[in-house]
Amino acid sequence: MKLKIMNSIRTNNFNDEHLMQKITDLWQEASGLLDNQKVITYAVYHNYESDYKGDYSLSITVEDDAGEPSLKILNNAKYEIFNVDTTKEHGVYDTWKEIWAREEAGTLERAYSFDFEKYSPNGEIEVYIALR
């Protein structure tokens, strides 16, 4: 999959007191660049320092088969897919809490390569977690 990066941040889930504002600002900036296009948009988590408690990069991207990719995710990677309950206000965050809990319990062995949230034009959201 070839993805064009709209914008990125470097952050941490637990040590960044401005995390929610940084992510909100990131999405607002990306929305302005998308010009209301009906495209699949991805929030890609990459360049992990360690595990989910360490620093990582978060990039808002769109599929771009026409140009040079600014981020390339291997299609042969193995992923577990989590469907987000979009009827809940914090559905994405709740999904991540489930992922972290499964990892802590030892029932999810993450690769920490490229994880991503897939935002479809129809409103569906899926979280893809790379597995070892």
Automatic annotation (TrEMBL):
The family database entries (SMART domains) matched by this protein are listed as: AraC_E_bind
What's the superkingdom here?
Bacteria
Residues in the signal sequence: none
* The protein's name: Transcriptional regulator
Membrane spanning stretches: none
Start and end of every AraC effector-binding domain? 1-132
Q: Which InterPro entries match?
A: AraC_E-bd, Cass2, Reg_factor_effector_dom_sf, YobU-like_regulator
Q: Which residues form a coiled coil?
A: none
